[in-house]
């Protein structure tokens, strides 16, 4: 696995796993045991109910560590860059490896290494056990496995391998259809058929703008129905016969193939069985609401259009309030003009918004779904690309209400991309109104929600320097509660959206326009974190041309006109090599230098704590260039 991680291209990763020598030694044996370890997130049979926090607590207990010790803190707070100062921050398995690397004994020469069979047996023992039984398994892991083996075992248990290889690539390499035991000849293709108890990805809706929503239906009749705020569930019903008796079984699957029969089945199965005709085998595709209402839709075969499937659903299913509900749909005819169809949809959106926050919450409504009445049922992403189902939400057209709230704190992220950085923000409101002329020192606040998406780095930068209001002028708890019973009061109504209108573009001020010009060509990475353009740099000297490599950290530099980019260009002009992410295996600590604006900041603080590289300030660079002497 270490070799796979160190390989960049997916094709090379797969060939490294399924090498010629492996395939020769493996022969015609089943690949299923190996695939369960290679793609653990697809293994639905083994559930451990263990995540990083529980595993960390178990290790602290088994190793006899104090929660306040250095290693105990690392395990329990593995996302905190002030505690885990290495590159492992945000990756629990790597933090565990660091903690265990000096606590494990090397295996004896006569001791056989772990095999696929051994690992699967260990995981079978761990699955479905109580805490004490699982602790016994981990005790065996701690005392018999190396630090590297424990790292990969934990990744399998938390079902996140982090090898940079998607399961689709692995399965595609094995076979174009990748159906184990059904196909042993890669020249034979499998013809997929939807049938009960066979997991599939349900049909998905495409996001479009309000102005284009009716045009996307291509002039066909379409059904308009509420978009509910629940979990997408397919309910499978099929009869089976045994001992002269016939019984119909039910299973519930999420859109990602997770079996929720044990979780939802006991409270809903009796109602579903009673409301669906007893002589019918079917799959109901719908939404499971988190409170007390469940709404199901039906498709018996992919060959029938939606209008025919709905007619069949009315024949076989009887609704019962708050259990199995056939939601109300509005048929918008193709005989109407384009403007009339658009007006019908926009009026329905405004009617739902008029119910206010509380009405939307009670009815579970988050938007609208438009479904082409002539559409056949399709599975997975191909259905989203077809635009036969489209979804509309008020925030797509700026019809939601803006709230002034406080950023109370943040949560550290996980993984290589977000590890060590804040990935989610905790928001709050004031508990009581305060007098702006007499702001007390201690003001009670109440947490409101947590957000982690829907904003860009540029928007965060704007928020950091936005001082149009004082922080204590934010929303209060009483004001927030009052909003529940009111209409949304949005600035824009759906009926104001013109047919064909695109999402409005924000007008840029001069500073934003200059930044946009600078950022052009830097897709995905903000320019302040990107390497400067060296093509325009002319050589000035060779003072740093002695194998020195510099990493310039972003920050606020004191000197006027000095930025990360200008420092990099200055270093490059004087013979230096520039890198963005130094690594001890790739960059010699003796010849690699970190340039920082100050000692403030988590990243520079970690470099100082690690003491792997020399850390200098920009003044040192400027003195060296001016005097042409390296101090």
Automatic annotation (TrEMBL):
GO biological process per UniProt: DNA recombination; double-strand break repair via nonhomologous end joining; nucleotide-excision repair, DNA gap filling
Keywords assigned by UniProt, alphabetized: ATP-binding, DNA recombination, Ligase, Nucleotide-binding, Nucleus, Repeat
UniProt GO molecular function: ATP binding; DNA binding; DNA ligase (ATP) activity
UniProt-listed Pfam families: DNA_ligase_A_M, DNA_ligase_A_N
Family: Belongs to the ATP-dependent DNA ligase family.
PANTHER family registered for this protein in UniProt: DNA LIGASE 4
Protein name stated in the entry: DNA ligase IV
Organism annotation: Aphanomyces astaci (Crayfish plague agent)
């Amino acid at each position: 696995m270490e070799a796979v991680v160190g390989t960049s291209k997916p094709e090379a990763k797969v060939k490294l796993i399924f090498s010629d020598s492996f395939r020769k030694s493996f022969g015609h044996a089943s690949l299923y045991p190996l695939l369960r370890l290679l793609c653990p997130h697809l293994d639905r049979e083994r559930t451990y109910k263990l995540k990083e926090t529980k595993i960390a607590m178990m290790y602290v207990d088994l190793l006899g560590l104090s929660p306040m010790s250095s290693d105990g803190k690392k395990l329990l707070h593995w996302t905190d860059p002030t505690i885990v100062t290495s590159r492992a921050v945000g990756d629990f398995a790597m933090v565990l490896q660091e903690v265990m690397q000096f606590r494990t004994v090397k295996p004896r020469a006569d001791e056989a290494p772990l095999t696929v069979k051994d690992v699967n047996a260990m995981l079978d023992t761990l699955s479905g056990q109580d805490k004490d039984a699982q602790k016994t398994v981990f005790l065996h892991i701690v005392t018999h496995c190396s630090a590297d083996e424990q790292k990969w075992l934990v990744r399998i248990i938390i079902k996140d391998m982090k090898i940079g290889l998607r399961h689709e690539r692995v399965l595609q390499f094995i076979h174009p259809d990748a159906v184990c035991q059904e196909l042993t000849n890669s020249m034979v293709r499998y013809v997929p058929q939807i049938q009960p108890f066979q997991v599939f990805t349900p049909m998905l809706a495409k996001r479009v703008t309000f102005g284009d929503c009716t045009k996307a239906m291509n002039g066909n009749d379409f059904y308009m129905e509420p978009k509910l705020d629940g979990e997408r569930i397919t309910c499978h019903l099929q009869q089976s016969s045994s001992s002269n008796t016939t019984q119909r079984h039910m299973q519930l699957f999420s859109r990602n193939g997770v079996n929720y029969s044990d979780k939802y089945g006991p409270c809903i199965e009796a109602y579903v069985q009673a409301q669906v005709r007893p002589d019918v085998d079917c799959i109901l595709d719908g939404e499971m609401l988190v409170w007390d209402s469940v709404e199901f839709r039906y498709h018996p075969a992919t060959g029938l259009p939606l209008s025919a499937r709905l007619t069949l659903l009315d024949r076989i299913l009887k609704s019962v309030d708050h259990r199995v509900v056939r939601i109300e749909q509005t048929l918008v005819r193709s005989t109407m003009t384009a403007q009339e169809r658009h007006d019908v949809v926009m009026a329905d959106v405004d009617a739902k918004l008029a119910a206010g926050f509380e009405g939307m919450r009670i009815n579970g409504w988050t938007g609208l779904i438009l479904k082409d009445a002539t559409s056949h049922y399709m599975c997975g992403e191909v259905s989203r690309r077809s635009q036969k189902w489209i979804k509309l939400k008020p925030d797509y057209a700026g019809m939601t209400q803006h709230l002034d709230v406080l950023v109370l704190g943040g949560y550290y992220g996980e993984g290589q991309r977000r590890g060590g950085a804040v990935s989610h923000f905790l928001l709050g409101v004031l508990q009581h109104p305060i007098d702006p002329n007499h702001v007390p020192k201690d003001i009670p606040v109440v947490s409101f929600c947590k957000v982690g998406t829907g904003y860009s780095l540029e928007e965060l930068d704007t928020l950091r320097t936005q001082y149009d209001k004082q922080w204590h002028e934010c929303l209060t708890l009483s004001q927030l509660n009052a909003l529940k019973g009111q209409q949304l009061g949005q600035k824009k109504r759906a009926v104001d959206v013109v047919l064909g209108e695109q999402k409005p573009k924000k007008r840029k001020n001069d500073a934003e326009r200059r930044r946009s010009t600078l950022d052009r060509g830097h897709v995905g990475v903000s320019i302040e974190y990107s390497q400067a353009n060296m093509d325009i740099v002319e050589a000035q000297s060779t003072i740093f041309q002695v194998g020195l490599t510099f990493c310039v950290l972003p920050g606020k530099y004191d000197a006027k006109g000095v930025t990360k980019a200008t420092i990099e260009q200055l270093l490059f002009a004087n013979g230096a090599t520039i890198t963005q992410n130094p690594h001890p295996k790739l960059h010699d600590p003796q010849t690699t230098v970190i340039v920082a604006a100050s000692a403030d900041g988590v990243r520079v603080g970690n470099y100082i704590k690690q003491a792997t590289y020399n850390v200098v300030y920009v003044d040192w660079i400027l003195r060296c260039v001016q005097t042409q002497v390296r101090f």
